[in-house]
TrEMBL record:
PROSITE patterns: HTH_CROC1. CDD domains: HTH_XRE. PANTHER family: TRANSCRIPTIONAL ACTIVATOR, TRANSCRIPTIONAL REGULATOR-RELATED. This is HTH cro/C1-type domain-containing protein. InterPro entries: Cro/C1-type_HTH, HTH-type_regulator_Rgg, Lambda_DNA-bd_dom_sf, PlcR_TPR, TPR-like_helical_dom_sf. Residues 8-61 form the HTH cro/C1-type domain.
């Protein structure tokens, strides 16, 4: 029994995961991983999940070569980097990375193809200025995600699909899909994956701003900021604080708006979002706070 645990431990460390990270990836708690690695228990379900994550048949799992584990690690690291580029809105670099993944030998599983269609759609929309291609890739990612991806990944792709509609000017459709994503998340604790919940709420707030529904926008910004606070996350905190202040201004709460905008500039600079911070400063000048 202990050899299974040792193998799991070796696998985890080679992939640079802590026990907590590994448990989260597999959908169990850290104590379970600790017991498996110590040989205290053997959990066939966890072994099955590990194999599934690696794209390996469970019967072949313990015959897996180290090179296969390294390939998996490289794929996961590349995905993290592409997600980082998306967050930083560096779509030019992201386009090169996604292209290399399509052409390379490692992104072969169905889940990998979901990821590539998803991010190719983002690239087509923001970098290539090809909304039709963006729509096709995002819809293919959604179709495949229903079969091969986790619940939260499906929500994230749906969020991107809503953004496509927002960028292409179909605000009502965007609102529909953002609400669909929000409704899917509503049955779960938002602190399980706070970034996903915050991102959907942020985009809803943005959409309401475009519709000049400032009360609704402020409410969604507030909800997202509460999740940031409870999860001790700074993700999108600057943008959300700005949104909240912007809505407050248009609702007639100018002192609150000024405080929020000043705070948002500090947050944005902390998050190294200099361009957004400069935009917030310019907006404050336009509002002519006294």
């Amino acid at each position: 029994m202990k050899q299974y645990g040792q193998y799991i431990s070796l696998l985890r460390t080679r992939l640079d995961y802590t026990q907590k990270d590994f448990a989260q990836m597999l959908g169990c708690d850290q104590a379970m991983i600790s017991k498996i690695e110590s040989g205290e228990i053997v959990c066939g379900e966890i072994i099955h999940h590990v194999a599934w994550k690696l794209g390996i048949h469970p019967k072949e799992f313990f015959g897996t070569k180290v090179s296969q584990l390294e390939d998996f690690h490289n794929v996961e690291q590349t995905k993290k980097y592409i997600r980082y580029l998306a967050h930083k809105r560096d779509y030019k670099t992201m386009a090169c990375q996604v292209r290399d993944c399509w052409n390379g030998p490692h992104f072969q599983s169905k889940k990998d193809h979901v990821f590539l269609h998803w991010h190719q759609g983002i690239v087509e929309l923001h970098e290539m200025n090809n909304p039709q291609a963006a729509k096709q890739h995002l819809e293919e990612a959604l179709r495949m995600a229903d079969q091969f991806e986790t619940f939260f990944k499906r929500v994230e792709i749906l969020n991107s699909y809503a953004i496509y509609h927002l960028v292409t000017g179909d605000t009502e459709a965007a609102l529909h899909y953002f609400h669909q994503a929000e409704n899917l998340l509503s049955v779960l604790d938002p602190l399980i994956h706070p970034h996903v919940s915050v991102r959907v709420l942020y985009n809803l707030a943005t959409t309401y701003l475009r519709l000049e529904q400032f009360k609704d926008s402020q409410h969604k910004s507030f909800q997202a900021l509460q999740i940031c606070k409870e999860s001790k996350s700074t993700y999108l905190r600057g943008e959300l604080t700005y949104q909240y202040g912007y809505s407050a201004y248009h609702l007639g709460y100018k002192e609150k708006a000024q405080r929020c905008m000043e705070k948002s500039i500090i947050y944005l600079l902390d998050e190294e979002e200099e361009e957004l911070a400069e935009y917030a400063v310019q907006q404050m000048h336009q509002f002519k706070f006294n």
